[in-house]
Design brief:
188 residues; mainly beta; eight-stranded antiparallel barrel
Length: 188
């Protein structure tokens, strides 16, 4: 887990340089294509089903509240279409979950001045505090969808904003958990 977190931190440190290198490209229609790196902090809860033997998740209805750090990069493909990748690391603050970490690809559509509606698919690892200090990480495919709302689209006077309110819901495995999260992301 430490190797994954160190690798993610090293990759995230390269994002600003890549963004500066890409910021001036224009597509055939003249619209600017560019990378948009972002970071964020979110909070929420993760509730697991109590069904036994499904997708490697322990056969108990574990749940927990958590705080999550998010780092990623979006690429404006054409018009309102956006694709990207993000990494997450979550720490349980109460309940049965100790850590969660993962990576996901995203695709979305820009809405309004600066907001984004997105879907994502990735892979997540979960460590349950309830299973003891040397318990294995459980893992599986994760799916989710959400929206990032810009203050410029919520009645603000600015034409655009680097800050977005993010609300999303994810699931692990074949819909064996629900994970609503909300927080703030900032692009740079």
């Amino acid at each position: 887990m430490k190797t994954l977190l160190i690798s993610a931190a090293a990759a995230a440190s390269l994002i600003p340089a890549a963004a500066m290198a890409q910021s001036g490209q224009a597509d055939d229609a003249g619209a600017t294509r560019r990378l948009e790196p972002y970071v964020g902090v979110m909070g929420g809860v993760h509730n697991f089903d109590s069904e036994t033997g499904k997708e490697g998740i322990p056969p108990v209805g574990y749940k927990g509240r958590m705080v999550e750090g998010v780092a990623g990069v979006n690429y404006n493909v054409a018009g309102p279409l956006v694709v990207g990748v993000e990494g997450t690391a979550s720490k349980g603050v109460s309940g049965d979950i100790d850590w969660e970490y993962g990576v996901a690809g995203r695709a979305g559509v820009k809405a309004g001045k600066d907001s984004l509606i997105f879907g994502k698919v990735g892979y997540k690892w979960v460590n349950f505090d309830a299973l003891g200090p040397d318990s294995p990480d459980f893992h599986g495919t994760t799916y989710g969808a959400g929206v990032e709302l810009s203050p410029a689209d919520m009645g603000g006077s600015a034409q655009s904003s680097n800050i977005r309110l993010r609300v999303q819901a994810d699931t692990l495995g074949h819909f064996r958990s629900i994970r609503p999260m909300a927080g703030v992301v900032a692009k740079f």
